[in-house]
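## Example pair
The file below holds two records. Each record gives the amino-acid sequence first, followed by its structure token line.
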Amino acid sequence: MKEKIIKLAKKYLICFGIMALITVIMVISFGYSRDDSLATKYTILSDSFFVPGAVVLMVGLLIWVSTTGFFDAIAYGATVFIKGFTKFKRTERFERFYEYKERKAEGRGFKHGYLLICGLVYLLIGAIFTMLFSSVL
């Protein structure tokens, strides 16, 4: 149990660390300085937290959707199409879509919830800076 918690904590730390690095790079690239007005600072911070949060959240949502089997038909069609051109003589039959879907469903499970949580936290921080920006104007 303790090993599981440590493993999950590492995932969160790595995710937040990468997002923090992206945020720092964005803040530097936007030209954040002490001389800027408060509204400009809030705008830069809002954008710098919102963009990595949105990207990580969308990646997490895409992974979640892919674990539900949403893209199985597309993957199956592409596989059958490509296999049709790879061998000149076909001796074995193609796997039926139902068999393909059942085989894929065996190993599924959403193990990337930390991406959703990290993305939501950063979006929340970006929203807070946006509200602060609105209050300054």
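Second record, same layout:
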Amino acid sequence: MGYGFRYVKFKRENFTILRIITIRETVTEAVEIHYLNGGLALEYAPTDRLSFSGSASVGHVLYNQADNSLLGTVRGHGGTLGSFGVTAQYAVGTSWQLGLGAFTEVQRLAGGEKEQVVWPDNHLNMYGGTLNLRFQF
């Protein structure tokens, strides 16, 4: 069990607001999320040089804030966040490890209110890869 913080900045284009207004220009959006979560991590090492790991977690969002370059700031409370990741690591030497992995994260953030307009919930699905080099001493 733990506390987590996410800050994600991305560009959004051709999106609809409140199912009424379609924005055709590109805007920058930054999402800040504070949450409590719990998870599980497993590791398997078939040889001294090769290891595999996986992790999964789920959490409850305490607070979220979206800053949009066109619309301003919208604050919300509540929601859920889930993530899953896998990594393969290979020991290059006695102290160095090279890792390659993949992750996915699903965010379901409760909407907020700005200028007496209730904003809908925000759903964000992220996925990607990781490449890391680790030194142990």
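Notes on the second record: The two ends are 28 Å apart (CA to CA). The chain has a mean pLDDT of 85.
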